[in-house]
Task: structure prediction
Amino acid sequence: MVRIYTLIFNRPDLIEWQLRTIKTFILDKTEYIPVINTEDPGIMSRAVAECERLRIRYETIMNPDYHTPNNAHSYGINQVLERFITRDNEHISVILDCDMFFIKPICIADYVRDYEFTGISQGRANAAGEFFKYIHLGFLIINHLAIPDRFARIRELSLKCGFVGGIGLDTGGMFYYYLQEYPETKVKWLSTNLLNKDRDFRQVFGEMTNKYYKEFSSEFVDDVVFHYRCGSNWDHKSKDTHRRKTLFLKEMLENKIQAYDKISK
Result:
């Protein structure tokens, strides 16, 4: 069983699209669980209504700090870790950003093989030139059965933000200390491909190439996941940019779902 947790902060309109891509492209037995983490009553009610319409399980988190984005994200992620993932010792757990979507067939169990953790490499250097590597929590897979002494170690795991070597690290930064404690940990580090450079978009998007603009700044994760990016608009794009970007996303996903449905029947 693969359980996929996603934090819903401000884009309940994307829940259905995540669910559809998971149902279409993930070959494992899967449960998708939106975890609603917002201070906005309107977003909360829309997210709950969407989950009930789709007849899927959902959870809610009341966060004491919504005002610092990094702290808010860190608190939500670590509540998911403590309340749910630490109890999933016989399964594979996935943390997925609410604006990430699978775009090709994948068997998660085969993808992670015997790796304990699979995720995007992230790191920062301090003024002294020391580099601190940790794991980005946009897309993280925890393979419980591959972790030695998993019942104890999973409870030692922290995915919080914080300071290491005098420099602030994003959510997931405290994974650095886990790697220091267990240097033999098997991690499958993933790469991303940011789609804002001059390149042949036709190879990626086909007939939809003329609808993708570099200002969208989306990315691929290991060519398996499409990351809309900046769904919370932390990069302060215009409403029209997000309107066009969302239209592009939904049309692109619909095309990929329909194309796969045709060849898989």
